[in-house]
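Figure 2 data, in text form.
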Amino acid sequence: MSHAGERAALIRQIRRIELRTAALADGSCAGPNRSPLRGSGMALANLREYLPGDDARAIDWKASARLDRPVVREYEEERNQTYYLVLDRSGSTAFGSSISKDRRILEVAASLIFAAHRQNGRVGLCIVTDHVERFIPARPGKSQVIRLVQALVSHRPSGTGTDLSAAFRLLCTRVRRRCSVIVISDFDDPGFVRDLSHLRRRHETTAVRVTDPAEDTLPDVGQVFLEDPETGEQVLVDTSDPAFRRAYADAVAAADRRTEVSLRTCRVPEVRVSTGEPYDLPLRRLYAHPRYRGG
């Protein structure tokens, strides 16, 4: 499909996502001022079980002692809550069996923009590859939504590598007031831990990890060239060799575990999104996550 065709298809999908996001938000909310996005507002909304990555300062020790398990205080979102979306548009996200990871990243981002706008929130955007390619400060209003959606549709990445740390450092420097940061990426970047930990201390942070089922196994198709989408390096491999396919699967599983451990080390909760499912299912999963649940 040509670039113009891809852009037109994405615009049509974003229009559908706007309607679907409204339905998801309304279906999970009890009133017009409640949001599927959670934050650190002032009104106590609920007590829930402590999850890895939660701020220890939110633990209600009296309730925990009474219930004999750790629970945390959950607050209603402030009407003027600020959100920043970090979008990974590196070369590795171009991979996909049904749709690309990059396309799913844009879909999730569009849904979050619409959801935040419905609750009068301020939304900003940071697009990153091997450097920060675009930074849009958070603002409220319909004009900001239009600006952000235009950035999703029109931006063509210039870099192919991944440096998530560049985005994390920028947010720590440019965004002074505590806000919610949602990082949407495949996290194919081993060097993000230190800067993500620093970001997590300054802002409430969530990782939306986008994966593709075809990455987990290598089909038996004989000798093929495998190319690194970020460096362009190619290597000839024999996929008919069962030992090689097992080694590949083991390497992928090990990389997956390293990313899980890295996010847990940073105390950043993770929501998984797959390209191998309808787009509204991962959105439901995201809104059902304890950090974003609105009911």
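Caption note: The two ends are 41 Å apart (CA to CA).
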